[in-house]
């Protein structure tokens, strides 16, 4: 996917002024966590279920090498063709090759984050193979050539007027309509023709089960099941971290994923495929290709401080919980992955030096960590990136150097109470001379960015210690001594 | 070529530092396991109904045919596709004849093309579900030569006939049976919970996105 991470601040500013986005984000950030909460509370013991899910993800990642091999062996034994791809170029080339060799004119696709990450659609289309996204939200974003607003609902914020206009242009509808149900039903009819004569489908993978070589997809719309049923050729694309050890683990994770994703106890469809169709079956793929894509994951795996990123199950819960996402929505992140999940993954995929705005746009409140069903500690990964960026002399910005020096000075001052008190006494009048109505809104010499979104309170005239001394109260230690006597 | 790429990827992650994962906590308890048959039926019905599905209890095969005819009349079916090994013994052709409905079974369909044509044209797909799961009002279907995939996803109405013997508390009960023997794993097994749905435009949800708009389950209570 073409990334626009460098436009983070610009896009964020524009989105914060966009009334539609704001109204929508308000609804999302209030509603989605409640839905999730209701879903989770249907577990007899939600905390135990969450802990067990986190343990499955931790174990899956720690045992990744052997689980991947086991998955490959079992999938192949059932007749799936497993293809490995080091990077996006290799993955795209394999899919194109499969399509070309079979003389495919068009492909329909189920929603898949990794295909967005590698820019699969653009590659196929520019090489003469048409691709139709089939998930309703993806149909809309594809037709509008727009980035996903949210990983679960990529076009949730797009006004119906805009959808109507693009559907008219593409021949999906004949008469304009702003009714969401009519718009959706029109896509149903439009896609049915495509599914009916389909020769090749592409789907992502939610879970790959090592024990059986099974790939699992969860969905509500039925487009993935159509893709897995109608055509002769099916390509399933997964990144290496999708494996789980057993079917029992997969079932638990499906329960967890559904609840965290949409608040449902179970999504409408959970389809579990093990190999292509049997020779006596009438439908289902004659050939099942499973493309296992690395594209930077093995590097993340080797980087022990951030390895846990790979535990993510792409549920989207952290987006809904994040106070930053709730203000700016998905566009500013500029890549397939947005919200806290994108803030930890994109720097590894695109380079820390190119994604500084992402890991700096975080208050470290920890809401994502708290909600994450995979047990990822986003704030500490974000801090790790900040530290790496500061240490990286080659890409260090002037303000980073300044911040660094400032931190060194203050840590020196804080190391001795005498120095600290002295510093406070000297700085206070200077500092307070900038205040207006008790707030400092700007300062000379830089820090503009800092003050653009927050104010500082002026320092009080006296410190707590000074006030305490003035009160001349008895020393609490002496009082206690007296009492015990 | 691919094996070289595979080795490269695998050796990269294999040579990375290993941490031993902590032992798993205790498997969370599933309260549904304690349900008796009547409670399972109640739970199944409540869950599926909340997804706009409908649940019928038929006394036996004959009664199921009666229920089917009632549904067909109410929905105005003209043509249906019916699949699944002997459909729990229901005489589907006579159901078609007496209701004036064209019924296509696998015997009428010679290949994938014929199946696709029939499935996409049908007003309803009648299938025989292998499992019903109380936990969420979910059907479990094993796809095979007797049970093609399209019959339960392409037509706008999906009617599943299930023997009450196949009603279980939780997903694990079905998965253990389906995946228990490695040599008999089907090419696809699916859980279906209600009609297809979406809420992708303005978070307005509706049923009947790409798959069925209606899901109807008929339990056969006796023989
Ligand atoms: S980081 Fe956690 S909460 Fe966020 S999408 Fe991934 S699994 Fe879900």
Commentary on this structure:
The complex is a heterodimer of chains A (485) and B (223). Chain A has helices at residues 8-17, 19-40, 46-62, 64-77, 88-101, 113-118, 120-126, 136-144, 160-169, 180-196, 223-229, 247-262, 297-302, 317-321, 325-328, 339-350, 356-360, 367-371, 378-391, 398-414, 417-432, 448-451, 464-471, 476-484; strands spanning 81-85, 106-109, 130-133, 200-203, 207-209, 214-219, 233-239, 243-244, 269-273, 287-293, 439-440, 456-457. With 485 residues, chain A is of the alpha/beta class. In chain A, strands 1-10-7-4-2-3 form a six-stranded parallel β-sheet, with helices on both faces. The mean pLDDT of chain A is 93. Chain B has 223 residues and is α/β, with parallel strands linked by helices. Chain B has helices at 2-14, 37-50, 61-75, 92-99, 112-121, 171-179, and strands spanning 54-58, 79-82, 102-104, 124-128, 131-133, 138-143, 157-163, 167-168, 188-192, 197-198, 206-207, 214-220. In chain B, the strands form three sheets. A six-stranded parallel β-sheet of chain B has the order 1-12-7-4-2-3, with helices on both faces. Chain B has a four-stranded mixed β-sheet with strand order 8-5-6-9, with helices on both faces. The longest helix of chain B is centred in the N-terminal third of the chain and has 15 residues, at 61-75. Chain B is globular and about 70 Å long. The chains are: A alpha/beta (485), B alpha/beta (223). Chains A and B meet through helix 2, helix 3, helix 4, strand 1 and helix 8 of A and helix 1, helix 5, helix 6, strand 9 and strand 10 of B. The complex binds iron/sulfur cluster. Residues 312-318, 340-341, 371-374, 376 of chain A line the site of iron/sulfur cluster (SF4).
């Amino acid at each position: 996917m073409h990334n626009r991470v460098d436009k983070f601040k610009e896009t964020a500013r524009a989105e914060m002024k966009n009334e539609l986005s704001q109204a929508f984000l308000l609804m999302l950030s209030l509603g989605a966590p409640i839905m999730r909460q209701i879903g989770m509370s249907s577990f007899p013991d939600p905390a135990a279920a969450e802990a067990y899910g986190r343990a499955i993800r931790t174990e899956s990642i720690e045992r990744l090498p052997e689980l991947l091999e086991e998955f490959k062996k079992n999938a192949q034994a059932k007749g799936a063709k497993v293809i490995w791809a080091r990077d996006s170029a290799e993955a795209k080339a394999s899919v194109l090759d499969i399509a070309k060799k079979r003389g495919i004119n068009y492909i329909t696709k189920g929603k898949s984050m990794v295909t967005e990450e590698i820019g699969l659609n653009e590659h196929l289309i520019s090489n003469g193979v048409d691709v139709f996204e089939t998930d309703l939200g993806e149909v809309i974003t594809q037709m509008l050539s727009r980035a996903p607003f949210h990983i679960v609902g990529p076009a949730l914020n797009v006004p119906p007027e805009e959808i109507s206009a693009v559907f008219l242009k593409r021949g999906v509808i004949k008469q304009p309509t702003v009714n969401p149900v009519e718009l959706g039903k029109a896509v149903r009819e439009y896609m049915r023709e495509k599914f009916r004569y389909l020769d090749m489908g592409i789907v992502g993978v939610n879970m790959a089960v090592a024990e059986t070589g099974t790939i699992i997809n969860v969905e509500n719309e039925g487009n993935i099941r159509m893709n897995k049923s109608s055509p002769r050729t099916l390509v399933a694309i997964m990144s290496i971290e999708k494996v789980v050890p057993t079917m029992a683990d997969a079932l638990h994770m499906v329960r967890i994923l559904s609840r965290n994703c949409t608040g449902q106890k179970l999504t409408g469809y959970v389809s579990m495929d093990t190999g292509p169709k049997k020779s006596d079956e009438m439908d289902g793929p004659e050939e099942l290709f499973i493309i296992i894509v690395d594209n930077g994951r093995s590097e993340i795996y080797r980087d022990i401080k951030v390895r846990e990123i790979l535990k993510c199950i792409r549920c989207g819960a952290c987006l809904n919980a994040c106070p930053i996402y709730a203000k700016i929505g998905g566009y500013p992140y500029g890549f397939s992955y947005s919200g806290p999940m994108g803030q930890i993954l994109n720097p590894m995929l695109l380079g820390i030096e190119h994604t500084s705005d992402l890991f700096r746009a975080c208050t470290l409140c920890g809401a994502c960590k708290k909600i994450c069903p995979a047990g990822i500690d986003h704030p500490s990964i974000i801090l790790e990136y900040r530290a790496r960026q500061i240490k990286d002399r080659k890409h260090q910005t002037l303000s980073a150097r300044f911040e660094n020096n400032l931190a060194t000075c203050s840590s020196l001052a804080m190391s001795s109470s005498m120095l600290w008190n002295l510093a406070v006494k000297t700085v206070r009048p200077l500092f307070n001379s900038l205040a207006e109505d008790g707030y400092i809104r700007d300062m000379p010499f830089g820090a503009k960015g800092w003050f653009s979104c927050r104010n500082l309170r002026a320092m009080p005239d006296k410190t707590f210690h000074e006030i305490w001394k003035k009160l001349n109260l008895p020393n609490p230690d002496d009082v206690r001594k007296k009492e015990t006597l | 070529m691919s094996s070289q790429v595979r080795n490269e990827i695998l050796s990269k992650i294999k040579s990375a530092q290993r941490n031993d994962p902590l032992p798993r906590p205790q498997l969370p308890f599933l309260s549904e396991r304690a349900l008796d048959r009547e409670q399972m039926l109640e739970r199944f019905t409540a869950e599926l109904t909340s997804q706009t599905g409908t649940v019928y209890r038929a006394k036996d095969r004959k009664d199921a045919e009666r229920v089917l005819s009632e549904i067909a009349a109410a929905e105005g079916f003209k043509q249906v596709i019916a699949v699944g090994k002997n459909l729990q013994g229901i005489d589907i052709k006579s159901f078609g004849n007496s209701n004036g409905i064209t019924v296509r079974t696998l015997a009428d369909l010679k290949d994938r093309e014929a199946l696709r044509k029939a499935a996409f044209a049908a007003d309803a797909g009648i299938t025989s579900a292998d499992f019903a799961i109380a936990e969420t009002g979910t059907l479990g279907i094993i796809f095979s030569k007797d049970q093609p995939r399209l019959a339960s996803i392409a037509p706008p109405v999906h009617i599943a006939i299930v023997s009450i013997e196949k009603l279980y508390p939780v997903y694990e009960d079905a998965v253990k049976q389906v995946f228990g023997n490695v040599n008999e794993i089907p090419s696809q097994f699916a859980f279906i919970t209600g009609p297809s749905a979406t809420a992708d435009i303005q978070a307005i949800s509706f049923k009947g996105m790409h798959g069925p708009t209606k899901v109807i389950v008929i339990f056969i209570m006796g023989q």
